[in-house]
Amino acid sequence: WMIDFGKTVPLPPPQTLDHRTPWAEGNREDGYLWGLDNLIQIFGDMLHDTNPPSP
């Protein structure tokens, strides 16, 4: 499991999470989607770098 729901608790209002904000002490963000966005960008860059230019 990626999330242990047994250990989760509701956020106190008005705090929200977007999962794209990088983690910083006290912000409760996990950065999951931020990391996934970066991973997708890395793979896209690698794919672009491996395609030879057209003659």
Write a structural description:
- It holds the Pfam family IPK.
- The chain is mainly alpha-helical.
- It has one domain (10-49).
- It has 1 helix and no strands.
- The protein is elongated and about 60 Å long.
Task: Give the SSE map.
Blueprint lengths: L31 H19 L5
Family: Belongs to the inositol phosphokinase (IPK) family.
Protein name: Kinase
GO molecular function, one term: kinase activity
Features:
55 residues; mainly alpha; elongated
Unreliable spans: none
Q: What fraction strand?
A: under 5%
Give the biggest beta sheet.
Answer: none
Mean model confidence by pLDDT: 85
Helix proportion of residues, in percent?
A: 25-40%
Could you write a compact summary of the structure shown?
With 55 residues, this protein is mainly alpha-helical. Helix content is 35%, strand content 0%.
